[in-house]
């Protein structure tokens, strides 16, 4: 009988941009990225972590960085009010 039990959560992670993952501080090693205790397989798109909260946080950070990156490329202005992000072209 084991003394402890480890539960792992695996979900689909569509973020495969190595540049964005590096901006978030991920360590890239071959086909894997490691960020805040989450292991992301860049080939299969699967993320593995001990809890759902960690994966949700990574997905949220990745989405925010994706929007910021696109806004930079398109010369849009970004305004943050609380957790709301507003983009304007002028």
Could you characterize the architecture of this molecule?
The radius of gyration is 16 Å and the shape is elongated. With 90 residues, it is an alpha+beta fold. It has a five-stranded antiparallel β-sheet with strand order 1-5-4-3-2. The protein has a two-stranded antiparallel ribbon with strand order 6-7. The protein is 32% helix and 32% strand.
Helical region count? 2
Nearest-angstrom radius of gyration? 16 Å
Order of helices and strands: EHEEEEHEE
Distance between the termini: 64 Å
The order of strands across the largest sheet is 1-5-4-3-2
Strand tally: 7
Q: What shape does the CA trace take?
A: elongated
Helix fraction bin: 25-40%
Spans where pLDDT lies below 50 across 5 or more residues: none
Largest sheet report: 5 strands, antiparallel
What keywords describe this structure?
two-stranded antiparallel sheet; 2 helices; 90 residues; five-stranded antiparallel β-sheet; 32% strand; single chain; alpha+beta
Topology of helices and strands:
Layout: E1 9-12, H1 18-23, E2 27-29, E3 32-35, E4 38-41, E5 46-49, H2 52-74, E6 77-81, E7 84-88
Antiparallel strand pairs: 1-5, 2-3, 3-4, 4-5, 6-7
Short description:
The chain is built from two helices and seven strands; from the N terminus they run E-H-E-E-E-E-H-E-E. By secondary structure, it is an alpha+beta fold. The mean pLDDT is 86.
């Amino acid at each position: 009988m084991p003394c402890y039990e480890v539960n792992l959560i695996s979900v689909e992670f569509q973020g495969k941009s190595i540049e964005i993952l590096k901006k978030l501080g991920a360590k890239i090693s071959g086909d894997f990225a490691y960020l805040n205790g989450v292991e992301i397989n860049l080939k299969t798109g699967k993320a593995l972590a001990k809890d759902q909260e960690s994966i949700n946080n990574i997905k949220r950070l990745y989405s925010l960085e994706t929007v910021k990156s696109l806004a930079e490329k398109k010369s849009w202005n970004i305004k943050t009010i609380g957790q709301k992000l507003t983009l304007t072209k002028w």
